[in-house]
Amino acid sequence: AQSVAQPEDQVNVAEGNPLTVKCTYSVSGNPYLFWYVQYPNRGLQFLLKYITGDNLVKGSYGFEAEFNKSQTSFHLKKPSALVSDSALYFCAVRDSRYSSASKIIFGSGTRLSIRP
Amino acid sequence: GAVVSQHPSWVICKSGTSVKIECRSLDFQATTMFWYRQFPKQSLMLMATSNEGSKATYEQGVEKDKFLINHASLTLSTLTVTSAHPEDSSFYICSARDGDFGPGTRLTVL
Question: How far is CA B10 from the centre of its chain?
Fold first, then answer.
């Protein structure tokens, strides 16, 4: 079975500082990993995904994430936070052994709050 | 642009009525679609896997007779919440392939 853990319910960062949102995963095969952002009363917005290749994945809005197989982690990072980054962030995983038509499992979410 | 659409984007209904939510893949065919539910300030929980031309696969704890899923074509899956009650009020989101999610449907049952 696959699972995702986001250990922090909330992360608070000052504007301009670097931010990290943590994610660890568990799958039987190799993972496909995703990050999504959700603003209030809105759907999910795709940020980035890791399929294979370079462990550092660059995504939308200046975000990036690093795949670490030994630590089974896929932390989301941004060098300089903006107030507009304040939102709910979800990490998600799919088992690569199955086709793209297989289910994605989400973490519990981390609320990111950027103070001016 | 968006590759998965949902309709309606929001709906308010009376307790006891049924509500149908549509999920469409816009520029590709999807033999499999997924339905998620999100309660306020919570994560997305997978409800069921919709399979074109066959029965849906429901996750543990999801009532298949209450949440009817029909995947009659390669571009359309529907979720019908039957005899809706206030506790069914939630945000319902579909997915049609790797990482492509619909905009969601907010259901409020009075």
Answer: 12
Q: Which residues does B98 contact at the CB level (< 8 Å), separation at least 6?
A: A32, A49, A94, A100, A104
A100, two tokens = 């793209």
CB count within 10 Å of CB A1 equals 7
Buried b vs exposed e over B58-85: b needs ≥16 C-beta within 10 Å?
beeebeeeebbbbbeeebbbbbebeebe
- The per-residue b/e assignment along B22-43, b for 16 or more CB within 10 angstroms, e otherwise, is bbbbeeeebebbbbbbbeeeeb
Q: For A83-115, write each residue's pLDDT tens digit.
A: 999 999 999 998 877 665 678 889 999 999 999
* Average pLDDT of span B12-27: 95
Residues of B in contact with A105 (CB under 8 A): 46
Among the partner-chain residues B31, B93, B97, the one whose CB lies closest to the CB of A43 is: B93
How far does B78 lie from chain A, in Å, by closest CA? 17
Radius of gyration for chain B, computed over Cα atoms and rounded to the nearest angstrom:
13
Residue that is written with structure tokens 């995702």 in the block: A4
